[in-house]
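Researcher: Go.
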Amino acid sequence: MTDEEKEPRHRPGPVRLPLGALSGALAGCAALAVAEAVAGAVRPQAGPVVAVGGAAIDRTPAAVKDWAIRSFGTDDKLVLRLGILAVLALFAVFLGIAGLWFRRTAAAGVLLFGVVGAVAATGRPDSAGATDALPSAAGAVAGAVLLYVLTGRLVTGRLVVGRLQPRAESQSPRALPADGDWDRRGFVIAAGAAAVASAGAGLLGRSLAGAGGRDAVASRRNAVLPPPASPAPAVPKGAGPRVPGLSPFVTSNADFYRVDTALVVPKVDATAWTLRIHGKGVDRPVTLSYDDLLRRDLVERDITLTCVSNEVGGPYAGNARWTGVRLAGLLAECGVRPPSKGGPADQLVARSVDGMTIGSPVEDVMDGRDALLALGMNGEPLPFAHGFPVRMVVPGLYGFVSACKWIEDIELTTFDSYDPYWVERGWARRAPVKTQSRIDTPKPFARPGAGTVMVAGVAWAQHRGIDKVEVRVDDGPWQEARLAAEDTADTWRQWTFPWQATPGGHTLTVRATDRTGAVQTGKRARTVPDGASGWHSVVVTVE
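Model: Structure:
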C-alpha cells in the first residue's frame, strides 16, 4: 500500500464550509443577475423572480391573499419578492455546501431551478412564448458553471509535505483534502471576477429594462388630454371639512391605493396601444387606438373607488377626478345591448396587458351610470401604476369586477360561459360596493384630552349615495353626525361629530345609511367573497 493510499480522507473543516456557502451565494447572485440582464432584453416580466412570483400569486388561495394584503398592505408585492429571494439564497447556499462533495449534482440543482423559472415564465397568461424562457435558462447556465468552477477550487489538490499537488486519480472524488489543501488564489480570483461580473450584469439588466420602458414614458409625457366635453361640476364648498386627521376629499395620485397582482408595473407605449371590442352581441367589432379615444368627447367625473380587499375601517378606498370616454356609448356604437333590452351577453370581460381578466355585468355598465374608459386621473394622464394608458372605472362596483388597469381587450360573453381571474379563485361574480363608513380621527388608542373632541371620517355607497351617518359612544344611543356637502352619489361623503369626551376608556362606533334607506349592517363578514361588512370602531383613552 502506497503512502497516498494510507493518507486519511478529510472532511471539510471550518474554513471550507463557509467558502462553499459563499460559492453558492455567488452562483445564485450570478444566476439572477444574468437572468435579469437577459430579461431586460426580452421583457422584464420574463425575469425568474417576477415569473415565479406571479405563478405563486396565481396559485395562492384567496384567504391567503386577503391575509397578505391585510398584513402588509400595498407592500405585499415587496414582501413576496423578498420571500422569493430569501428562498433562493438559502437554496443557493445549500447547493454551495453540497458542491464540496457533489459538484455535478449541485450544478444540476441550479439548472433545475432554472427549469422552474422557465416553466413559470412561459406559463403566465401574458407570456410571449418560448423567448420568455431565455432569462431563466441563461441565468441557470451561468450559475451552474460558476458553482462548478468555485467548488472545484475548493476541492482540487492535496497537501503533501507542504506542497500543493494534484489529487491522485485513485482518490475518490468524495475524499476531500484538508482545509489547508485548496486553490486559494484560484478561488479568490474566480469569486472576485464573479462578483464584479454579476454587478455588471445587474446594472446592464436595469439599463435594458429602463430602455424598454422609455417609449412608454415618452408617450405618457407627450400625452395631452383635451378639455372634456362634459366637465365635472366644481366640488361643493364644505365637501371637505378641515379637520386634522381627516382624509382629504380628493385623494392624490401618489396616495391613491394600489392593489393588483402585477409584480412589475406594465409600461405600455400609448402610441402602439390598441383596444379591441368584440364578442357575443357585438354587431360591429372595433379596434381603437389611444388617439381614437382622445378624439372622442371626453367626460370628467369625481368617482370613489373601493377595493374588495378593504377590511372594515381599512385604507383601500380613494376619491379622484377621472377623465375618459363613456363605455356605454362606445358599446352601443358596436351594437351591444344590455340583457334588459334583449342583448345576448350579460358579462363584459376586460383583459389587461399582463393577462388579468375582470368580469363586469353588462347591465350595470350600460344602466346610465358614469362607467368610463379612463385616460386621466386628477387632471393628468393616468400614472403607470394606475393603468396608463387606459383603464376601466365603474362607480358602484368593487374593483375586482370593474377596474381593469392597462386594458387592451373587451369581450362580451356570459357569466355561465366564462369565469374571470378572481371568480376562478373563489370570489363572487357580482359585487356591488357595500355601504360602509370609517372613523379617520381619533386614531385607535389615541389619548385625547377631556372636552370637545372632533370625531370625523368618511362614508361611501357609490351609485346610491350616503343619507345619514351615526356615531355611538360605548353602549349609548346612536347620535347623528354632521354630514359634509355631497359632491355626487358616486363619491364618498365626509362627516364630523363633536364629542364631549369624559375621562376614561371609550369605544367609538360609526354606521351609515345609504339613500335607499339601507342601514349599514353590524354583522361582521370577511372580504371574501364579495367584500367586508360590519361597523368600524376605535378605542381611545380620554385624559
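Model: Confidence is low (pLDDT under 50) at residues 1-10, 157-175.
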